[in-house]
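User: My advisor asked me to double-check a structure prediction for Elongation of very long chain fatty acids protein before group meeting. I don't want to rely on an old file, so could you generate it fresh from this sequence?
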Amino acid sequence: MSALLDHVQGGVQWIHDNSHPLTKDLWFMGSIWPVTITLVLYLSFVLKIGPELMKSRKPLNVDIYIKIYNIIQILFSLYLLREAFRLLWLRFDYRFFCVEMNKDPDVAKEQVFTVWLFLMSRLLDLLDTIFFVLRKKHNQITFLHVYHHAIVVSLAWFIINFYPGGQGAFFGTVNSFVHVIMYSYYLLTIINPEYKKAWWKKYLTILQLVQFVITGLHALLSVMEPDCDFPKFMMYLGISQDIFMFILFYDFYKKTYSTPKKNKQS
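Assistant: Sure, here is a fresh prediction for Elongation of very long chain fatty acids protein from the sequence you gave:
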């Protein structure tokens, strides 16, 4: 037992010692415990504790909080988009397929702070599932939903803690754009539930599928980019996740929008 504890302590110390100097002192960074505890509490609540607490209770009316939450998410994602273009894509001192940290220390610090804010926005995403629990929308707490939220937080933390301001900036930019569209739709459905039946609803899922194709291709081309010091194993990890998420979302799309009319009527 003591040997196991020594290994755990050694791993915790290694993470602290090897965290990027620009991120290690930021909230949630430099240690594995804050993000781990957050995800454990999240999974425990949405999969076990929350449904048990709500079993004998009526669904809570939290619409006003969801409206505020959606507005915050839209504004947050718009801000991240603006900063991504200001600090990276509108500059001329970067390579598209090898996104490296800017050599100007002031710009680099701003870039790192922005990608850290991206992690904070993904932690905020976890409230999605908590609202489902409180409203007793258990059918929406699927493997796809829970896995997607948990894995994005996990990978974002890992990349930002060790390799901030790198290739993950491309995914963060595309993902923030998708979130602007997605949370705008969610806001509309809270204001007017009829929008849940809108003909363009399925295109939100198509947009997410396109996201995984674009970010996956970018990662694949980045692997082949010569003289790029961003770790290739991170690119392969990103590609594998893009493929897996594409499969999950495509399966959801087929079941939701490609079901034969006869089955839908039944």
